[in-house]
Design goal:
With 92 residues, the chain is mainly α. It is built from four helices and no strands.
């Protein structure tokens, strides 16, 4: 026994992760979100603990020409370090 949903079943819809997160934070509905982000955001509640997609790989990429730039390399190194710390924190 199941049911099907279509776009017409939803009053609001977006493909922007930022917009959907802000809509959920404003109390306009429910959505999938990163578990760590939900746990660290005051007022957010995990509706189905333990339910979620399998872990996904994360890639930090750029064009080769940009990566050889010292400025871009410094930014990407910092992003990689910060993201690694974030993943370690939310997965602990």
């Amino acid at each position: 026994m199941g049911f099907e949903l279509s776009r017409t079943d939803f009053a609001l819809r977006t493909d922007s992760q930022t917009v959907i997160w802000e809509m959920v934070r404003a109390g306009l509905g429910i959505s999938f979100a990163q578990g760590g982000l939900v746990r660290e955001t005051p007022g957010m509640v995990e509706l189905f603990p333990g339910f979620g997609p399998p872990p996904l790989e994360v890639w930090l990429t750029t064009h080769r020409e940009l990566f050889t730039s010292r400025r871009i390399r410094a930014i990407y190194d910092r992003l990689g370090e910060d993201f690694t710390r974030y993943l370690a924190r939310i997965n602990s």
